[in-house]
Structure formats: structure tokens, C-alpha cells
């Protein structure tokens, strides 16, 4: 069986960023306007007053300090509180396509590949800009890649599931080199009027090159020792928007068509599941937790990552053992673990073992254990 390696990664970061202070100022302005407008009903007890947010609350709850977004003005407008991303004509490239192309260019350069070397494109992310034609086919054509392309969605675990699909293609000979992309516009499905979640997400796109070890020439090669996937249905993280049921223009009164979650249940249920999967995956490969040089975990919540790492290692992880990027990127869904890997792999030495692990709605968990060559 052919050996698959990761030979390059890329990252597209939007030019606009929103700090917690900026986000809170906008949110609190909305809250004050809402409470004033409904003052009589609030005093009568028929409407519940909204509570203000704070930067201290956000950082304590999540570890997030800022986030990159595709449109800052629309999100910070208290009368709108959602990004304004104008609809494009069918003759224009989609937003996700543009994001993916930028990330792909860096990944190809790092892997020492050209578009002529790529046989397949996979776009794996939480929310696709349209149902069809596939975003992956648009990216494939825009880059000038021959072969095939398709989209897939496993929420926040889309990237690790996408790597698994790429590995399968390489091992079976369906493709010698696969470009896997994660264009996430998470701000488009976030309810910025919800105090408990208005701060969670940011936007970004990552790219990963998976190829046959025999053709790899990059100095950034990581042997994929194994992949492990798991899904368990849960309503605790959900987004009900779809072609059968959409938000109205305002989005008000239809909050289940945006991101919703029961954070406490997610924390309680997902953390042990993830730690158990990583531990079991290591055992299947006859490895121990002590063999792990680095854990590139899904960037959703600082406390979750700290607890998962502690359960896997049997002790609190050092900062460099489980690097964090959510303080500046926030939760970028499927892109998060790959951003951490992309930014914190340069010091990994030959023979070092690491795990890329993502987890999220579904529930879904994906782990990819790799070794630096």
C-alpha cells in the first residue's frame, strides 16, 4: 500500500480583525437599544431584558481576544450585526473560491508542487456558499487543475475527515496528489445578537497537500501514520439553515437557522470523547502519550483544549505541546486545527510524533497522527 504524506500547508487570513472591545461595544449598543424599545414590556414582565457582554467575560469563557472576519463593518453595525457579503454574478469567482486559491498557492509552494501535479481537490468545511456546482470544482477550474473535485461537510471536523479522504485516494491510486481546502466564513452563520455565542467564530481558509511519499520532495514532509474518525449524533451543536428552511432578511425570530449550541453539555460530553479517541488511536499504532511532541487541537475553546491535553498526557500540557491560535483567530471551525499545525510545526524535528485533531457538531471527531520525516 502506498504511503501518504502531508507535504505542504497554506493559510489565508482576512485583512480585517475585530477585537473583543469592538465586538462588545457593538453588542452592548444593540442591547441598550433593544431594552429601551421594549422597556414597557420588560417592566411588565412579558419580555426578558437582554444582558450586556464584556471583554472579560468573553476571554474567560473562551480564551478568545480577537477574530479575523471577511466583513467588519456589517458585524459591528448595531442595526445589522451580520457581515455584508454582496451576492456575486455567476460569472464572478465565489468568495470561498478566492479564499481557497490564496491558501492553495502557499500550500503548493511549500510542497514544491504546481497545479499540474495535483489530481484531486477536496473542499471540506462547515458551510458551503452554495449547493452546486461544487465549490471544489470551481476552485479546481480556477487553478487549472485536471482530475476531479468534490465538496464535503463534517462541521468542525471537516479538515481531518478531508485528510482521511485524501489519504484514501493516494493509497488506492485514485490520485497521486490531493489538495484539501477549508474555506470557512463562520461569521456568516453566527448570531451576533446572542450573548453566549456572539464572540465565538472567525473567518479563515487553510490548505493541505496530501501526496504519495514517492513523489514528495518538500522538506516539510510528515508521514501519516494513521487516521481515525468517529461520529455520534447530537443536537447540542446545530445549524438548521438549509434550502428547505432559511432565515428571513433580519434573522430575528429564527435563531435556530444560525449557530446554536448547549455549551455546557458540549464541554462535558465532547472532552472525554476526544481524549479517549486520541489515546485509543495512539494505542492502535503502538504509541504512548509520551511519544507526542505536539497536539494540534481544534481551536474552539481554551478550557476544552487544556482539559483534553491533560487527559491524554496525564498532566497539564506545556504551551508548546498544545499551541493555541484561537486567541487571535477565534473558532474557525474546520480550519482551526490546521491553522495551529501550519503556524506551529517549524520546530518539529525528524522522528517527532504529533496529532492533528478536530471535533465538533455531529458529534464528529477526527484524528490524524503524523511523524516528521
- Amount of beta strand: 15-25%
Mean pLDDT: 95
CATH topology of the domain at 222-372, by name, is: Peroxisomal Thiolase, Chain A, domain 1
Sheet with most strands: strand arrangement:
5-4-6-7-1-8-13-12-11
Q: Spans of 5+ residues with little confidence (pLDDT < 50)? A: none
In total, the number of strands is: 13
Give the oligomer, counting copies of the same chain as homo and different chains as hetero: single chain
The largest sheet, given as strand count, sense and whether it forms a barrel, is: 9 strands, mixed
Number of helices: 11
Give the name of the CATH architecture of the domain at 222-372: 3-Layer(aba) Sandwich
CATH superfamily of the domain at 222-372: Thiolase/Chalcone synthase
Structural class: alpha+beta
The CATH first-level class of the domain at 222-372 comes to: Alpha Beta
Helix content: 25-40%
Categorize the overall geometry. globular
Rg, rounded, reads: 21 Å
Compute the separation of the termini in Å.
Answer: 18 Å
N to C succession of SSEs: EEHHHEHHEHEHEEEEEHEHHHEE
